[in-house]
Amino acid sequence: MNAALLLLLSLIALLAGYIFYGRFLSRRLGIDPERPTPAHTREDGIDYVPARAPVLFGHHFASIAGAAPIIGPVTAAVFGWVPVVLWVLIGSIFLGGAHDMSSLVASIRHRGNSIGEIIEENIGITGKTFFLIFALATLILVIAVFAAIVARTFTENPAAASSSILFILLAVAFGQVLRRMRLPLGASTVVGVVLLFLCVWLGLEFPLQAQSTLWLWLLMGYIFVASITPVWALLQPRDYLNSFLLFALLLGAVVGIVIQQPIIRLPAFTGFSNDQLGFIFPVLFVTVACGAISGFHSLVASGTTAKQLNTERDARIVGYGGMLTEGLLAIIALTTAAVLTSGDYAARFAAGPITVFSEGIGGFASSLGIDPVVGTSFAALAVSAFALTTLDTGTRLSRYAFSELFTHTTAGAEGHTPPAWTQNRWIVTALIVAASAALALSGQWQVIWPIFGSANQLLAALALLAVSAWLARKGQRALFARIPMYFMFAVTLSALITFAYSNLMAGKLFIGFLSVLLFTLAVVLAILAFRALRDGPPPSKGKDLESDGRER
Predict the structure, then answer these.
(1) Percent with pLDDT over 90 in the chain
(2) 451: CATH
């Protein structure tokens, strides 16, 4: 099959999903452009700051993309390209897109608070506590892992280090220009993007070399500052400009594939099991992960994105459109593997899935007259830039989760005052960064990381559970959230059982017992949710607060 034809069909499917299913979700979620969003009703100049749709899309997409939608599809290609394509398209349109958009809307209807608070108001304090502890632990693991990966990347590719530093300085200046001078976004973007690619060139010309440990400490200092800095000063402009790196990557890959017309050589389907990964169910689904649906997206949507949404009208393009764009990235990543023979795929994969992707992009770029070496380096640099984005967004999300862990809003908790230090962004951020640094420097994250795929998908199931409970309270069955929730619980619980059994039998007791613990957590939260749906929601001051704080 021609890879260009596969890409064209995938683009048509994703576009149709955005037009028709996105419109359906907007109706079911009651999108109202006239309803004030928390970015306006709770604006504080630090976390709650309205952002124009293109800027917020850039932040959201840069935060959710990272390296996962590249690593997952390339790794899952061992099952053949057809199962991966089907899951990416079906998953991103009907599961991941619905998950991301409904998480975002649920958050803005709960005054911009996270999935944890939605669980408290609709399931109970116990459910919220379990969820936030799990989410916080997962976020600290993500920060530690990505910090170690970025530090190693900077050591092995000094050009990426210098370019990344220049990106940050450019973003600060860009944010000041937009905020203080209020110049037109279009003209400012043109200048910003030109300077962005100048940073790429300067990075290649003047690489910065340092040891991995030094980079790790510098990264920890950076994410501390990034987490407490007002979003308009760094987070919004940096992610907005960085998104153009990935847009350039996507556009170059699409045009390169169309011009080159490569033939898919990887087998369409290799069987229902693989010696390295196991059975296709549930392994395929937790391996592809972010390319189809990701629990981390709900933390971003209900964490930073909901606090910056200017109008509910933007929820569709930011929440749903962001997931579909990530689905396109996953299809392109798969294509870089699918155009290889089985032998070539195995040889390149031995160096890592990022190598498969980067060299594939370099090959597609050659059809545009770009040196394959330059194309490969640019692809690796773009992936590094988005890993860095995941770092500082994850740190800010961890701060939110930690503070909400000590804050209760239900009627039974009236009069509850959280300890002042738990709401202090300086203290909480310092604790998060210290825990992440300790885990990264110890190297223990390498022991825990293999279970992350299952933990991430469990987060997605729990987020859909929270949305389903919220909508049930409002008298809606919301099958668009419940069906994906049931499926993700089936995938997650099956994966955790498989993972627990294989690791316990292999004598890896820590990972085995951790799998059992996550399985138990999922079951407990599911039972709590079932009781809430059966008996009615817990008392929450007797009123349903929408995003503007008005009683409904």
Answers:
(1) 42
(2) 1.20.1740
Contacts within 8 Å (CB) and 24+ apart, 409-413: 409/117, 409/120, 409/121, 409/540, 409/541, 410/120, 410/121, 410/124, 410/125, 410/538, 410/539, 410/540, 410/541, 411/538, 411/539, 411/540, 411/541, 411/542, 412/125, 412/538, 412/539, 413/125
Q: What is the rounded CA–CA span in Å between residue 197 and residue 202?
A: 9
Q: So what's the pLDDT on residue 549?
A: 44
Can you tell me the distance from the alpha carbon of 102 to that of 306, in angstroms, rounded to the nearest whole number? 11
Give the pLDDT of residue 138.
85
pLDDT for the residue numbered 414: 53
What DSSP letter does each residue of 224-266 carry, written as one string? HHHHHS-TTTTHHHHHHHHHHHHHHHHHHHHHHHHHH-PBP-S
Q: Which domain holds residue 24?
A: 3-257+289-535
Residue 112 in domain: yes
Exposure string of 222-248, with b = 16+ CB inside 10 Å and e = fewer, is bbbebbbbebbbbbbbbbbbbbbbbeb
Query: For residue 297, how many C-alpha atoms fall within 13 Å in the half-sphere facing its CB?
Result: 35
* Closest among 528, 506, 526 to 518, alpha carbons compared: 526
Strand 278-279 to 273-274 pairing: antiparallel
At 274, phi and psi to the nearest 5?
-135, 140
Closest CA to 97 of 6, 29, 3: 29
Residue 193 lies in a domain: yes
Q: How many domains does the chain have?
A: 1
pLDDT computed for residue 116 by the predictor: 86
What parts of the chain have a pLDDT lower than 70?
409-416, 532-552
**Which amino acid appears at position 483 of this protein?**
I
Task: Tell me how far apart the alpha carbons of residues 550 and 203 are, in angstroms, rounded to a whole number.
Answer: 51
CB 327 within 8 A of CB 84: no
Q: Which pLDDT value is given to residue 224?
A: 94
Query: How are the residues of the chain apportioned to helix, strand and coil, as percentages rounded to the nearest 5?
Result: 75, 0, 20
Q: What is the pLDDT of residue 309?
A: 96
Report if residue 224 sits inside a domain: yes
Rounded Cα–Cα distance for residues 35 and 41 (Å): 10
- Considering only CA atoms, which of 291, 317, 271, 241 is closest in space to residue 71? 291
Tell me the whole-structure pTM to 2 decimals: 0.88
Residue 544 belongs to some domain of the structure: no
